[in-house]
Amino acid sequence: NKKAFVELLFWKNPTAIREMTEGYSSLREGEGAAMHRAPAWTPQEEQALRELFWKYKEVEGQDVIAAILAELPAPGRTRRQVVKHLVRL
């Protein structure tokens, strides 16, 4: 490929670097960024998150996110995931 040198000048992320150096079919199924992506929120989880937010948002002197994480029915969610999803909602 005559234009490969241009691609080498503008690397985008570690996955692209690995593909360019090891070959474009080097990544097997289940590797890369998709493997580390957080699971999608189900409608039931979103509803529970809304209810817990409205329950704890007015409580003075309490960490709202910590209280939500303690009662959230979906274990394994991180504080960052909860905050990000609340902002999105």
Automatic annotation (TrEMBL):
GO terms for cellular component: replication fork protection complex. It holds the Pfam family HTH_TIMELESS. It comes from Asarcornis scutulata. The gene is Timeless_2. One of its GO terms (molecular function) is DNA binding. This is TIM protein. InterPro entries: SANT/Myb (IPR001005), Timeless (IPR044998). GO terms for biological process: DNA repair; DNA replication checkpoint signaling; replication fork arrest.
